Every structure is written in C-alpha cells, then in structure tokens.
C-alpha cells in the first residue's frame, strides 16, 4: 500500500513539474516595425496598438500551443534608415521568430534585404505591389496591393464612361508604386492620362498642379498618397472651384483624412478595405464577423475606431498565429505555413497565399466608398 501511494505521489509530482515546465516555456518573440511617430504615424500608431491588443488577447486565451507571444515593437518614424537599424536589432539582439511591418512601402523595401539574408519571415503592413512582385521567399504582406486599388477605381470610371483623367501622385515609395499601376492599367480600361504630375511628401500647397489639371481636359482626378498631402489636394481643389470627380487611394482610408480635409472631403471617392463600412455590409459577407469584433475590441481598448490600417496588423498577427499552430515557431516552419494559408477571412480581405502569390488577395478585397456628411458610405 505504501509503495502504491509512493508511486501515485511521484506520478502527481511529475505531472506538476511537467505542467510547470510548460508554463515556464519562453515566449515566442514577434518583432514589430511601425511608424508610430512622424508623418506616417496615422499608419503606424493603429498598427502598433492593434498588434499589442491582439497579442494580449491571444495570451489571455492561453497563448499558442501553450506558449505566450511577446511583441517587441520599434518605432521607425517612417525613416528607412531607422527601419533597417530596428530590423537588425530585432534579428540579432531580440532573436525574433518573425516580423510584422513596416508601415510604409519605402521602409519595407529598405528592410527586405536584411530579413532575407537572416531568413526571417516578414509580413509587411504596406501596400506597394513591388513588395511581393516579384515573389520574395521570406516576404508576405497584408495591405491590399495598390494594383487592386487602381483596378477598383478604373472599374468605376469605366462604368461612368470617363476616359480622360489626371493623376497626381506623391514622390515616395507608395506614390511611385501607385503611379506605375495607374499608367500600366489605363489602356485596359480605355483610359487616357492627360495630366501626370507629382508632389512632395512635405508639400503644403498643390495649387500649381491643380491649376494645370484644370486646363488639361481631364474628366476626373486621381490623387495617390498618404496623409497629409491628399487632404491639402482636397482643400486646394475646393479653393480653386475644381468640379471634377476626385478619387483618392486607399492610403487615406481612415477618419483622420476626413478630419484633415474638413468640408473639402465631401464627395471624394476611394477604394478601401471593408472595415470602415463594416456595419453596412450584408450578413452574408465572410469578413463581417471579424470586422465587427475588431472594431468593437479596438474601441474598448483605445476609445477610437478600429481602421483599415490597424487591420493590417490584426491580419499579420492572426496569420502568424495560424502558421505557428500548424508548423511551430521555427522561422522556416512559419514561412512554409504562411505560404500554405488558404481562405483566411481577415480584416483586409480573404487571404490565400501560395508559392506564386505572397499578397494573397483579389480585387474583391476592396469596396468603393464615398465621403458623405463627414463619414464613409458604401458605393453600391
């Protein structure tokens, strides 16, 4: 009897030690590169906030395979040099298993060689098509490609029988990528670009470019950039009495743009992820449940609306979670499982990665919205 009791006691102690060992397992480290401050903070701040919120939620629910996630995030300030320095730190000092971000196309392109050499999977939160075209083994993205945004805008122009347009693009990585797509796709939609101009990221007046557009014969204007430049374009266009339809890129898909543009935002059209019109979607929409949960969760934590940009980080963390659950926390295993992701209904769209597609979305990831009465309305 004593031997039996001793065996049971030893067995219970062993189980307790094993459980304690599992609980004491080190966290899986995830790196974050976000432009929390600087001109791109409207991207990076909600991304950082969302990433931490989602990691906290995963940990509260028991982690991934019984292990907690640890988010180690650095502020790139939207500066490519700082982004590269932070990426090196995440890889060499923090020993992260994967990285999400950066927030901008320029920062992402600068960081890609660093993570590829280190063989660390990275899920960018930036939109430039060139991030994943051509495919790079270790690089994925969650922001919808600018090529898909162009297709959504051009489809609407074709429906309205508009064939002559002016484009005004910011002279940075996001703007140049958008400009390439605008020019490349125009002929397929029967569209001719009659005015092609640029502006600097820090420019505070675009009157000269818009005056030129006014006399160009254009039937619509497409401005491609991220805040604050597009808001300046909107205000200047109103001041000049420019009555042409004005389209913006998905780079301004948040309430912050409306705040910056004020009354000049009225009537502006843009492609966007569904999150900013989540409550207007039919119940049959595959993303609606995730979208509403994200918006509610972000409002609870930060007393602000969850937006299109925070959604990129939500998708990145959840995609990593799925990859780790299926394949483990080894960087190579994470990479392989990311590439095998199929039909993941996230915030930015329904993702299906493959060896030939590390962006994972179709043009259905975008809806067209119009700004009406200082809010976003879904264009049917």
Automatic annotation (TrEMBL):
Alphabetically list the UniProt keywords.
Amino-acid transport, Signal, Transport
Q: Lineage in the entry?
A: Bacteria, Pseudomonadati, Thermodesulfobacteriota, Desulfuromonadia, Geobacterales
For this UniProt entry, which residues form the secretion signal? Answer: 1-24
Q: Which organism is it from?
A: Geobacter metallireducens (strain ATCC 53774 / DSM 7210 / GS-15)
- Show where the Leucine-binding protein domain sits: 27-367
| Protein name (database record) | Branched-chain amino acid ABC transporter, periplasmic amino acid-binding protein, putative
Q: Which family does it belong to?
A: Belongs to the leucine-binding protein family.
TM region positions:
none
For the biological process aspect of GO, one term held by this record is: amino acid transport
Pfam assignment, any one: Peripla_BP_6
Keyword Signal listed? The answer is yes
Name the domain of life this protein comes from.
Bacteria
């Amino acid at each position: 009897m004593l031997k039996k009791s001793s065996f049971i006691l030893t067995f219970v102690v062993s189980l307790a030690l094993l459980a304690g060992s599992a609980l004491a397992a080190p966290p899986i480290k995830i790196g974050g590169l976000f432009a929390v401050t600087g001109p791109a903070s409207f991207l990076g701040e909600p991304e950082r906030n969302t990433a931490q919120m989602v990691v906290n939620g995963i940990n509260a629910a028991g982690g991934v395979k019984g292990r907690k996630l640890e988010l180690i995030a650095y502020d790139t300030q939207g500066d490519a040099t700082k982004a590269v320095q932070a990426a090196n730190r995440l890889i060499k000092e923090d020993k992260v298993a994967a990285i999400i971000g950066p927030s901008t196309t320029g920062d992402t392109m600068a960081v890609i060689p660093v993570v590829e050499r280190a063989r660390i999977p990275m899920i960018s939160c930036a939109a430039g098509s060139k991030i994943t075209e051509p495919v790079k083994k270790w690089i994925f993205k969650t922001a919808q490609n600018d090529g898909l945004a162009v297709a959504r805008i051009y489809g609407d122009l074709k429906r309205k029988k508009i064939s002559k347009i002016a484009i005004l693009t910011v002279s940075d990585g996001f703007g140049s990528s958008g400009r390439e797509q605008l020019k490349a796709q125009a002929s397929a939609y029967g569209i001719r670009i009659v005015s092609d101009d640029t502006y600097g990221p820090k420019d505070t007046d675009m009157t000269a470019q818009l005056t030129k557009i006014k006399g160009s014969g254009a039937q619509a204007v497409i401005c491609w950039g991220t805040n604050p430049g597009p808001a300046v374009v909107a205000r200047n266009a109103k001041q000049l009495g420019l009555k042409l339809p004005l389209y913006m890129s998905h780079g301004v898909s948040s309430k912050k743009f409306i705040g910056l543009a004020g009354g000049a935002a009225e009537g502006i059209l843009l492609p966007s992820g569904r999150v900013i019109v989540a409550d207007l979607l039919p119940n049959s929409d595959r993303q609606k449940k995730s979208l509403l949960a994200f918006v509610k969760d972000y409002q609870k934590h930060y007393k602000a609306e969850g937006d299109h940009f925070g959604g990129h980080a939500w998708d990145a963390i959840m995609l990593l979670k799925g990859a780790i659950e299926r394949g483990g926390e080894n960087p190579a295993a994470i990479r392989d499982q990311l590439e095998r992701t199929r039909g993941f209904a996230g915030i930015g769209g329904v993702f299906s990665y493959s060896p030939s597609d590390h962006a994972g979305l179709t043009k259905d990831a975008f809806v067209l919205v119009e700004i009406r009465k200082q809010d976003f309305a879904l264009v049917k």
